[in-house]
Specification:
This protein has 80 residues and is α+β, with helices and mostly antiparallel strands. 64% of the residues lie in helices and 15% in strands. It is elongated and about 75 Å long. The model has no long low-confidence stretch (mean pLDDT 89).
Length: 80
Amino acid sequence: MVLAAPFHISLPAISRHLRVLERARLIERRREGRLHLIRARAAGLDEARRWMMHYAAFWDSKFDVLDALLRKERSTAVKR
């Protein structure tokens, strides 16, 4: 399998990964005889990007709150 060549995992593992990506609609698979043709789905990748950006914004805000709390704790500890 050409797609598996650069990776140091088994062909069944590659197939499992591809099935997951296909179920998530991030790739499309088409067969021509014994050949499996695989391509990325731009629409699926856009959905994944939006989902990740939503959660990145969520976690950024949480880290900002944590940063403010740690700065406050540090300044309080220095004053003691």
